[in-house]
User: Fold DNA-binding FadR family transcriptional regulator from Oceanobacillus polygoni.
Amino acid sequence: MVIQKTSLVNIVIEKIKNYILENKLKPNDKFLTEKELTEQLKVSRTVVREALISLQAVGILKIKPGGGIYIADTKLGTINSILKHHYETHGVKIRELIEIRKIIELGALRLIIEKQVPLDIQQLREINESYLQAITTNGDTKKFDRIFHQSLIKATDNDTFYDFSEIIHQYFALVRIDLTENQESLIKSYKQHNEIVDAIKDNDLLHAQKTMNDHFEPIFTFIKKMEEES
Amino acid sequence: MVIQKTSLVNIVIEKIKNYILENKLKPNDKFLTEKELTEQLKVSRTVVREALISLQAVGILKIKPGGGIYIADTKLGTINSILKHHYETHGVKIRELIEIRKIIELGALRLIIEKQVPLDIQQLREINESYLQAITTNGDTKKFDRIFHQSLIKATDNDTFYDFSEIIHQYFALVRIDLTENQESLIKSYKQHNEIVDAIKDNDLLHAQKTMNDHFEPIFTFIKKMEEES
DNA sequence: AGTTATAATATTGTCAGACCAATTTTCAAT
DNA sequence: ATTGAAAATTGGTCTGACAATATTATAACT
Assistant:
């Protein structure tokens, strides 16, 4: 029987967490100072500081030197840094990430059409036209491509889904991949975008997903070639 | 112009991370001691300790009192604890998590069939038979249901996909949901499982996904009823 | 020689006090 | 009322000490 002896620091961490929950502290709220904590919890400043730093590391608190301690807005930042280290130590297969992104995009289409969420078709068109313009003027095509896909995910009316999608995207961004796209393939992408919007408008899930699937095809062939070379 | 002044602790954290990368340290490897770190980095023990505790918080190191410091096996643990706090403070809509789970399961079917991964059909059948037995003998039905679905995700030959699926599942487990299932509905689930396996065997993605979609239907109606009551 | 109990050592945990650096507050001068 | 310097507050780092835990070395025994 192993009895997990818990250190003072861990006790303090739990107490602080509970304190935040019980007092319903929101992001950017001011928290107690180190001095107040040492007095109220009757532990040394060392213990308090180690607990605070630990909570800052996981994105719960934000320590401002000289300015006090605040509730952090726990977003993706911390998770991303963890994933970054995980990627650097373990190494993650690019193919796996792309497969996941495909699943996410296909899933977004399903949610949009199945739930009949309100969708700003016109806005999607405009984004895609900006995409086209970027293509013809050697502009930032990746930017508008990303906005287009991001808009679809956002439209699913599922914030958690969007958060996870962003995490995957950030994770993917760690991998530098030089998929040199020529004008022709970019134009094709533009047309596929429009075709996807059409299919959504027609509530044609199968068509939308098929087109999205095709949309992903070039990158898969690229990955396959890359894997063969190495 | 904001100049991000970086503290000594943060510098040490980065140095330690790099040290781990450069020396290719693996989980459970013994790391340097506090003493060695203070000497090599020429900083106080306070700074070293705060850096170590920070790295332990994000699941990179594991500190054993009196026994030294080790490389932790960075898995889902830390991310889960972050999501747990996120859930407790923000509150996450159950519907969103279930939608994500559906997307994942449907995606798994697509990956399995599209990639034609080797799949132990027989094993899936056996798991489902255990599921049936649990149904008829008032056994642990949830256990075998989970194993069945887990097996499908695992079969996709995509470890990252599986990891994320597990994170979602853990996240979902935080929400206690009493979906009282009667014998009849459980039997239906059993049949659907088998139908999904059949469809996979026939490479019939549409059929597999349609059945999986139906499989999720009861929980969605349950959620909808719950939302209406509150 | 091999095993076991004990002592010595090494390592992390906690404490106290001091001083530095950054920020916020106070308050006098304008 | 505004500004700007001084004071107070707050977090950052350092040192040294002792406690609690784990590991290693030693001694005793079979």
Notes: The radius of gyration of chain A is 24 Å. Chain A has a mean pLDDT of 92.
